[in-house]
Every structure is written in structure tokens, then in C-alpha cells.
Design a protein that fits this description.
By secondary structure, the protein is mainly β. It is built from 3 helices and 12 strands.
Length: about 180
């Protein structure tokens, strides 16, 4: 399985028992994606390795307690700490309307209702409190906050997103 065919679901954050169980901090609030899975991919180095789930249950808030097959000791569990878990993209429910997954819109063109074509989404930076579209525009980068009030239309068929940004935001990057 290639990493670009998967999505991140969580990180193994701690050992739970002397029998090899681990605690996984999930990325989202839908814990059921992992809860009823037969297997998950664990990123070991640059590879995604399938690990089969023997038992999985809710622990606290966004933590899951998982027992993997053939992970039977504290030492086995310790070797998995801080590793990331992934699932195939095909397991994500389809979104409609103006809702989308970040990976889904990379490469989409962005149009502003007043400015016109802005450029192509190269990345969505979600490391701050407000996710931001990173858009390539004629060798420059334009940053547009991903805000419901700015988002007017997501057109999956034509791979276009229409936004309505505050006056002067785009010009700040182009004329600045």
C-alpha cells in the first residue's frame, strides 16, 4: 500500500499493559473507523506494514486501546510507540456539497468571485488553529484561510473551488 493511497488516523502514544496493548490517539472524532477494523497500516520507517487487530475498544476521549496480533509483550508494544496508523482512502465516507477532505482538493483551481482565477491548491496547512489553502499563483504563494464564510462552491467535477475573500487579501500577495 502506498502512503498516498491512505489517510492518517492516529498515533500510538503509549503502552497499556504488559500483554502488548497500546493506546492510540486518533486524529478525528470518528473512532469507529478503527474500532471495527480487521487491520490497519503502521508506518515503520518509509513502509506501511499491515498489523492485524485482535481487540480494539474505546479508552478515553479520543484514545483507543488496541491489541495487535503478534504484539504480545511490553517490549513489542514499546517498539511501536510514536508510529502513525493509516487506513485506505477507500474507507472514507464520500463528502458532498462544500465539505471535502484536505487531500481531495490538492490540485484544484481556486477562483475568487471578484478577482477571478487565483491559482492551484498545492497544500492545506492545518498546523495552526485556522487551516489555510496554500495556492500557487505565477511563481508566488497565496494563502487563503479556509473559512466557511469564504467558501462559496466546491466543484469536484471540474476540480474548482470558488471563494469570496475579503477585499484586498489576494492583492496583498500579488502587489505586495
Amino acid at each position: 500500500m502506498r502512503k498516498e493511497d491512505t489517510f492518517f488516523v492516529g498515533t500510538i502514544v503509549s503502552k497499556f499493559s504488559f500483554k502488548g496493548e497500546v493506546l492510540v490517539k486518533t486524529d478525528g472524532d470518528d473512532l469507529s473507523l478503527l474500532e471495527n477494523r480487521e487491520s490497519v497500516f503502521v508506518e515503520l520507517g518509509k513502509d506501511l506494514i499491515p498489523f492485524f487487530i485482535e481487540k480494539c475498544s474505546y479508552h478515553k476521549s479520543n484514545l483507543l486501546r488496541i491489541k495487535f496480533e503478534e504484539v504480545d509483550t511490553e517490549r513489542d508494544a514499546e517498539a511501536l510507540l510514536r508510529h502513525h496508523l493509516f487506513l485506505p482512502l477507500s474507507l472514507l465516507p464520500k463528502l458532498t456539497g462544500n465539505k471535502f477532505y484536505y487531500h481531495e482538493v490538492i490540485g484544484f483551481e481556486v477562483f475568487d468571485v471578484h478577482y477571478g482565477r487565483v491559482g492551484v491548491i498545492t497544500h492545506i496547512n492545518d498546523s495552526s488553529s485556522q487551516p489555510i489553502f496554500e495556492i500557487a499563483h505565477q511563481g508566488q504563494q497565496i494563502l487563503i484561510p479556509l473559512h466557511d464564510d469564504f467558501l462559496k462552491e466546491v466543484n469536484r467535477k471540474d476540480k474548482k473551488i470558488t471563494v469570496q475573500t475579503p477585499d484586498g487579501l489576494i492583492e496583498l500577495y500579488i502587489n505586495g
